[in-house]
Each structure stands twice: as structure tokens, then as C-alpha cells.
Structures
1.
Amino acid sequence: MQNRIPDDFEKKCERPSASASEKDGRFDQGRGGSGFAVVHLICGTICSGKTFYAKRLAAAENAVILSCDELENDIFNKSLGEYYDVMSPRIKAFLLKKTVQLAQCGCHVILDWGFWSAEERKATDEFLKSAGLNVKWHYMSVSPKQRAENIRRRNKAVEDGLCDDYFVDSGLLAKSDRLFQPPEREEMDIWHEFTES
């Protein structure tokens, strides 16, 4: 039986207009399912080190990363503009279906999305568990000083044409700070203090 995404999932995903602390001590076991494959969900605000961490985790776990930003950049060439908030939930719903398919085939999956709202985290967690999947939540905790340095490096890389990320200007940063809802400790399986070393 195919697992169905709830009708209101897109609404719940909308953004309104290694040092790690682990609960069970292992990356390869998640909560909720009985199979081997694990879906790792990376939560954190903008420039908290999510993608840096996801790449390391993918190498360690032989996992595939599903990134909204990567899909948006590759398909829409960062041209969504005012339609970003309309398309983003649809992209997430599509990638969630692919997540279920991959995990049911035994492939570890990493969702490098940020999961800014508590409602989105809850809806995603319930959906994946209803499909019988193991889930593991990772939170990227970053100091203001380190985050500022991450933003500086990212913007320089964008300006130098070395990456396809969005340039983080004051408007995008303010939006992130306004909308991001930090998780409670009990929501997460791993609380990662971000450093580059």
C-alpha cells in the first residue's frame, strides 16, 4: 500500500509569507520503524552548517542527500523569486515521496532542509513513521560568532562563483531569524555543536 502524504502537508511545510550529543550513541538506528534504512533529518537555521554536516554524514553512512536548495537551483536556476514560498512546499512533498521509496529499498536518506517550524517537524516525523521508517533528527547548534563567519565565507564563495548557494543578505537573514523556531532538546536525537574542525 502506497503511503499518502496528508492533504495539508504543504501548508504545514510553508515558511510564513564529529562532536554530537546522541541519545542512543549511534547514527545507524532511528526511531519509529523496524527496517534497517534510516532517514536523517537535519534541522537548523540558515548558515548553521547543515550542508557541511550532511555531506560528512552521507560519507559516513553511505547515504543520499535530498536537498530542496539543490533541486531549486538545478531546475529553476534560483529564479523562483516571489514563487519560492509557493513551490518550496511542493518540492518538499515530492522529495518526501522519494524518501519513502529510497528508504524502503534500503537506502539511507538525509533531508537537508532546515525544518524551521515545529509544525513542519511534527508533520514530517509523523508522515515518515506512518510509512514504517526509522527517523533520526539532528540539530545544528551554532554560535552567533561562528554563524557570522559561515555567512561571510558563503557570501564570498557565491561572489567568487565557487558555489550555487543563495547570497545571504540582510533581508534573508532577518527572515530566517524571524521564522526559525529552535527545537526542544527532546525533539532531537543528536544535538550537534557546529565546528569546522
Note: The helical segments are 9-13, 50-61, 68-76, 84-104, 118-130, 144-159, 170-179.
2.
Amino acid sequence: MRLLLSIILAGTAMFSACKTSNEAASLRDASVEAGGKGGECNYSIYPPKACKEGFHCVTPEGVYGAPGTCEPDSGDLGAECNYSIYPPKACQEGLTCVTPPGVSGAPGTCQDTGAKEGGECNYSIYPAKACKRGLTCVTPPGVYGAAGKCQKPAGGEGSECNYSIYPPKACQEGLVCKTPPGVYGASGKCTRE
């Protein structure tokens, strides 16, 4: 009887220790924003646990399928970059990793080598002809692979807008189309409220 009572008490102690450990883990996980810095990520499961924009997933080296940790992208203008290592040191969107010519696998620096507003762009060729940061490559509709022109994103602050034409030239969320007073159907400019 004494042995049975000891086993029951030991089992209860183990259960409460596990419960306390699980509660601590869940409190620790709640303090880390999902997909943000320090958040868990895993692209080898379905649905994948992805990192938020501006973060990338760092996994243990050589452990395929293992979960990783979301770390901020460090590839800002002038930062070191290298796509030939794992995990890669990537540049932020709109920047290009420029490496020394003729040195395979060498690190480079993140640079804004894109075309200026009105310049030619084409993402369907290699190497891509990109636009500078903050510009969008606008290609002719229905002509796949065609070169385009670098323009400010449609509907951005200061862009032309007109809701009385089809298709409408709309403003991005958080902006309003200010038109000349009393001129119906006229184009306006996207401005902050």
C-alpha cells in the first residue's frame, strides 16, 4: 500500500512539473511575435510557419526540415551580402548584391544599381534590369517578358488619380484623391488625409 501511494505521489509531482514546464514554454512563446524577431519558422511543413516581411528563417546547419528562428534581414544599403552560403546573406528588396568580378562565391555589398524613373527595366532576363528602390517596373499589358519603364508605384503619394475613368487610377490605402473643385471627371493627386 505504501509503495502504491509513493507511485501515485511521484506521478502527480511529475505531472505538475510537466504542466508548469509547458505553461512556462507557452508564456515564453507568447512573448515572441509570430513571424517576427525570434519567432519560430519552418518552410518544410504544411502550412508553413513563415517569417514576416523583412525577416528570414535561420535553421540549424545540416538539419533538414528542422524549425528555425526568424531573424531580421540585414541586407540594407552597403551591407555585406552573399548568396552562395547557407543561410544566404540577402539584400533587401530593391537592392542588388554586387560581387567582385570573376570571384565565384565571394561576398559583395548591397547596392542600389536599378534604373531611375523612366529608365528601362526587365525582370524576365538574367541578369535582371531592376528599378531603383521605391520604383515599380511597369510593362505593357499582355506582353510577357517585355521590357518596361521604371515608375513610381501606382496610387502612391503625389501620383495622378481619377475614379471617373475605366479602369480607375486609384490611390493606395490611406491616401485620398484630391481633384480641382467644381471640375467633374478631372484627374487629381493622391494625398494624405
Note: The two ends are 78 Å apart (CA to CA).
